[in-house]
Structure formats: C-alpha cells, structure tokens
TrEMBL record:
Organism: Falsigemmobacter intermedius
GO biological process: cellulose catabolic process
Keyword Nucleotidyltransferase in annotation: no
Keywords associated with the record: Carbohydrate metabolism, Cellulose degradation, Glycosidase, Hydrolase, Polysaccharide degradation
Pfam families: Glyco_hydro_8
Name of protein: cellulase
EC number: 3.2.1.4
C-alpha cells in the first residue's frame, strides 16, 4: 500500500510481531499540501513475516465478524444487505483476547496506531482500521482514544478529511496535508459503527461531514465521458491531462454502502457500484494490480512511480470483497510471492 501498508500488515500479523510506542506532537497547519514522496513505495516485510500473511489475513476477516458460520450466508448477499450489527462481537467472544493482544502491540496509550514496518509512523488508514476494530469489539474506551488522537494530530486540513501521515521523526510531525481517501473512508465507517453500537448521533454527524468531503474532493468523472465516477486516492494529485491514477484496493464496498446509508450521502453507494465494475473488469483479465491508470481509451499500466504488481496493495481487494459479500470473480496471485502483471493493454 502506498500509505498505511504497515498498519494493515500489523492488523493481520499482530499476534506475531511486536508493537511500538510513541508520543503525540503538535502539527503545523500551514505545512505543504502535497509532498514529493506521496505516495511512497511500500517496503516489503521480511520473508518470515510474509509467510504468515495468508493465514493471518483470514484471521482478520474472522475478527471483523466473518467467522466461518457467518461467511457462507454473507457470500450470497450484496454489501447493502449485510446489517451493520452483524459485525459486532459480544464482550465474551473468544476473539476478544486477540483484540487485547492487538491493542497491547499496536495501540499507544494516547490512541495512536503505530506502523512499525514504516519507521513507527502513523497513518489515517491505521487510525481507521483501529476505530473499525474498536467498534467491532465494543471497546468504547479504545475508540475514544483513537478518535481523540486523530482529531488532535491528523484533523489539520480546512475540510473534514485527515492528513494521511504523522511521523514522529519529522518536524513538523505532519509535513504533507494531503489526505488518503481509504483512510478517510475507514475512519468515517468506524465512526458510523461506533455511533450505531453506542447510540452516539454526534459520531454519525461527524462521519457525514467526512463522507460529504470525500465525494466533493476525492471523486472525479470517468475520462470516457460516461456517468461513472472514480475514487481518487487523495484530494491533490492523481489526475493529469485526461488520465486518472487509481488504486483498486481503496474501494471497500461494504464501508462505502454503510457510510452512504447512515449519512444520506447516496453518491458513495453509486461510487461503490462503479468501483465494483472496475474491479470486476480487472479481475477478469488476471490478478488485480496495485495501481492502474484510466483514460478515455481504457485501463493501462500506471506511471513508473506506482507499483503495477499484484502485491501488498491489491491483497486487500479480495478481503474487502469477501467482507462485503461480493467474492465472485476475483483471482489472486498464486503462492506467497508478489506477482508482477504483464504490461496492461488499454481495456475498457
């Protein structure tokens, strides 16, 4: 993943690899909107860590409420037909111990989710994952800590979106105020889930503001002139001279549908459907790549600074499809190695 990759790997491998601690610091609201290293290239974890990804990814799906008993009926339903309450686990659920271990390894006392694979930084994506899991496990105290730290340290933009990265080794801690749309999506979804579980309408209001700004700042018309729209990875960048660079793993159909229906931002549900059509088209031709470029002529390989592997970005696509009850038609690269796609020809 171009940003937040470590948090995802920490989520799926938390029981295997150690956690980290850090302290918060003030950010400079006048910092630049876009830095030269956004999005940066993901560093792959060591081989021993990579070996456990397939097993621990399945464990994350279970922790999100998709245990084997719930998985079969979910696979027959569309994302909008899965009630949010189906995600919530009881306080005596066996996976509560795994959640406690994850917090001990990955969550600081201040509410910061730490990416140990990328120099102990934090990302909006990691804060979003943590908030969703706190809602799933009914941990209001952890949710409040995560939201408090995020509001103090990442909510530095003039809109309701979050800065994508906080770096304890830089001054200021937030040197790039661009957002990451998947981080905003998961964070807003986590607010909705917490609001629903704990009857907190103020959280639904906050999620609605993020959803509205995602639609306003992070969507673009399809270059082919159709009514379809695309989810931009961030508000700044990713568009140039009739082309749009897209990360397929930024589409999480269930999160988009739940967020749309809870906040009244129906454009997100349409965006999810457009994204599903894009992912299905990619999957029909082979493993879904990390990044693609879209123009009026079709889908092509992205610019050189973006990975076209079916790698640690794209691994999320299959998980999000299953989590959303939409598993059909996706193909994954065989084995444990990242697989590089052949150069993409322009396809519709």
């Amino acid at each position: 993943m171009a940003h937040g990759s470590g948090e995802f790997r920490l989520l799926v491998a938390a029981a295997l690899y150690g956690g980290h601690t850090g302290t918060g610091a003030a950010v400079d609201p006048a910092g630049p909107l876009l830095s030269a290293d956004y999005p940066h290239q993901t560093r792959r974890p060591p081989v021993k860590r990579r070996r456990f990804l397939s097993t621990t990814t399945a464990a994350l799906a279970a922790a999100a409420g998709l245990g084997l008993g719930a998985l079969r009926p979910a696979m027959a339903q569309a994302a909008g037909d899965l009630p949010m309450s189906s995600l919530f686990l009881a306080t005596d659920h066996p996976l509560q111990e795994a959640w406690s271990r994850w917090k001990a390894l990955c969550l600081t006392e201040e509410g910061r989710v730490v990416d140990g694979f990328q120099d102990n930084v934090s990302h909006s994506e990691g804060q979003g994952y943590g908030l969703v899991l706190a809602a799933v496990f009914g941990d209001r105290a952890a949710a409040d800590l995560i939201m408090s730290w995020t509001a103090e340290n990442l909510a530095v933009r003039p809109d309701s979106l979050l800065a994508w990265r906080w770096n304890p080794a830089s001054d200021p801690r937030v040197s790039d105020r661009n957002n990451a749309s998947d981080g905003d999506l998961f964070y807003a979804w986590g607010m909705v889930l917490c609001g629903m579980r704990d009857n907190r309408p103020d959280l639904l209001d906050g999620a609605g503001r993020i959803a509205a700004d995602l639609i306003r700042r992070c969507t673009a018309p399809h270059p082919d002139g159709s009514a379809r729209r695309l989810l931009l990875p961030g508000a700044a960048g990713f568009r140039d001279a009739g082309t749009v660079v897209i990360n397929p793993s930024y589409y999480m159909p269930r999160a988009m549908t739940d967020l749309a229906r809870a906040t009244g931002q129906s454009a997100l549900e349409s965006l999810a459907a457009d994204g599903q059509a894009l992912i299905s088209a990619l999957a029909s031709r082979g493993p879904v790549p990390d990044w693609v470029q879209i123009s009026a002529a079709g889908i092509t390989a992205p610019p050189a600074q973006f990975s076209q592997n079916a790698g640690y970005e794209a691994v999320r696509v299959a998980l999000f499809q299953i989590w959303s009850g939409l598993p059909g038609g996706l193909r994954l690269a065989p084995g444990r190695r990242q697989r590089k796609r052949p150069d993409l020809k322009a396809v519709p």
